[in-house]
C-alpha cells in the first residue's frame, strides 16, 4: 500500500481530503469532512452514541480520521462520500476489468494522496 502526503501544500480541491484513482482511471476526491462524518456514523452505530456525542469524539480524536479513511474506506464509500473528478475512458475501463479479474480486491487507499491532511 502506498500512502502519499502532498508535501508541496498545493491543493487543487480547495479543501482537505483525499484524492484516489480507481483501477479504471476514474479520479475521486473525498473531502476530509465526509470521512469525519463516516467515522461519526460508525461511532453512533457501534457505540450507541448520539450524533453530537459521536461528532465530539471524532473532534477529540482528529488525528485518527486519516487512519479511518485508509483502513475503513472501500470503493463504495469513496463513491458515496466522494466527488468524481475525472471519468475513465473505455480503454481504461477494459484494462481495469482485466486487472480486477486477476486481483480479487484492491483498496482505494493503495494509491491515495492526502491533501491538507496530517499523516501520523
Please list the strands of the largest sheet in the order they lie side by side.
1-5-2-3-4
**Overall tally of domains:** 1
Q: How far apart, in Å, are the first and last alpha carbons?
A: 16 Å
Question: What structural class is derived from the secondary structure elements?
Answer: alpha+beta
Which blocks of ≥5 consecutive residues have pLDDT under 50? 1-8
Helix content class: 40-55%
Question: Taking Cα atoms only, what radius of gyration do you get, to the nearest Å?
Answer: 15 Å
The major β-sheet equals: 5 strands, mixed
User: Per the principal axes of the C-alpha atoms, what is the gross shape?
Assistant: elongated
Description:
By secondary structure, the protein is α+β, with helices and mostly antiparallel strands. It has one domain (17-115). It is 45% helix and 16% strand. The protein is built from five helices and five strands; from the N terminus they run βββααααβαβ. A five-stranded mixed beta sheet has the order 1-5-2-3-4. β2 and β3 (27-31) form a beta hairpin. α1 (32-47) packs across α2 (51-60) and α1 crosses α3 (65-72). The radius of gyration is 15 Å and the shape is elongated. It starts with a strand and ends in a 5-residue tail after the last strand.
Question: Topology, pairings included?
Answer:
Blueprint: E1 4-5, E2 17-21, E3 27-31, H1 32-47, H2 51-60, H3 65-72, H4 75-81, E4 83-86, H5 90-102, E5 113-115
Helix pairs in contact: 1-2, 1-3
Task: Explain briefly what this protein structure is.
By secondary structure, the chain is an alpha+beta fold.
Amino acid at each position: 500500500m502506498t500512502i502519499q502526503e502532498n508535501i508541496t501544500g498545493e491543493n487543487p480541491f480547495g479543501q482537505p481530503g483525499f484524492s484516489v484513482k480507481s483501477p479504471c482511471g476514474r479520479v475521486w476526491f473525498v473531502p476530509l469532512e465526509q470521512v469525519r462524518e463516516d467515522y461519526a456514523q460508525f461511532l453512533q452505530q457501534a457505540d450507541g452514541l448520539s450524533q453530537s456525542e459521536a461528532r465530539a469524539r471524532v473532534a477529540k480524536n482528529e488525528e485518527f480520521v486519516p487512519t479511518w479513511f485508509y483502513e475503513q474506506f472501500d470503493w463504495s464509500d469513496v463513491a458515496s462520500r466522494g466527488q468524481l473528478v475525472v471519468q475513465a475512458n473505455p480503454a481504461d475501463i477494459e484494462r481495469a476489468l482485466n486487472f480486477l479479474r486477476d486481483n480479487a480486491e484492491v483498496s482505494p487507499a493503495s494509491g491515495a494522496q492526502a491533501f491538507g491532511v496530517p499523516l501520523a
